[in-house]
Amino acid sequence: MTDNLSDSRIQVRDLSLDYGNVNVLKALSLPIARGKITVLAGPNGCGKSTLLRAIRRLHKPASGAIFLEELDIARLNDKQLARQIGLLAQSPSAPGDMTVEELVRLGRYPHQSMLQPWSPGDSAALERAMTGTGVTHLRDRRLGSLSGGQLQRVWIAMVLAQETDVVCLDEPVNHLDMAHQLDCLDLVRRLNREFGRTIVLVLHDLNLAARYADQLVFLRDGVIAASGTPEELMTEAGIRTVFDVRSMVITDPVHGRPLCIPLGTDTALSA
């Protein structure tokens, strides 16, 4: 269980959040480790994306708070927060006739003002983001002409151009084929390992979660069901409790991480 608050980049404290009359997050507390990859996983509707968006202050909590170390994010203005936390939401969209460079430039918006227009520092950040994601050669291409994998890299480049210490990604491999899923997550891991970014990632695929996570968090019904290493959480009993799935868990012979082989659902058993 991850509970060392002194080494946390983000602390979610007793967070409750409602959609209308529906209580989505329920007095949820979670420390997120500095410089690590934290993966949020759980059944559909358990609150993963809501928690990620709350960390970026896109949802107002009913109670509780989120801290960047000891700083309550509610005390930051929008641009101050955008310089600290970057977010790539699910299925983002932009005009198809926009160029790759134009989209990535939007990542520098939090650093712009009437008195501080585009600067050499912004240009350098733009180039670092495009080089780091391998999209420099696409800079003049229209978004509508890109493949799904190329487009996802461009969106990640846009988030990286913000140069935030914390990067939140909501299902970044959604709708990608296997090769592009691995390319995308390998890129995320490289950003973490080489540049020390704190990554918070929502993934549905448990085996991808186990392969890339330093800290794995299982949510169910708006609360933390369990938090720890993939080895601690990826057990047959744990998966059945959280996901209602019977499984066999073995050790991946290549990567040494837990590997879940689904056998069936409890729903199917009771039908």
TrEMBL record:
Gene Ontology BP, a term: iron ion transport
Superkingdom, taxonomy of origin: Bacteria
Record bears the keyword Iron: yes
GO cellular component entries: plasma membrane
Record-annotated ABC transporter domain positions: 10-246
Main location as per UniProt: membrane
Keywords on record: ATP-binding, Cell membrane, Ion transport, Iron, Iron transport, Membrane, Nucleotide-binding, Transport
Similarity comment: family membership: Belongs to the ABC transporter superfamily.
Compartment list: Cell membrane
Pfam families membership: ABC_tran
Topology within the bilayer: Peripheral membrane protein
Biological source species: Devosia ginsengisoli
Protein name per Swiss-Prot or TrEMBL: ABC transporter ATP-binding protein
GO molecular function: ATP binding; ATP hydrolysis activity
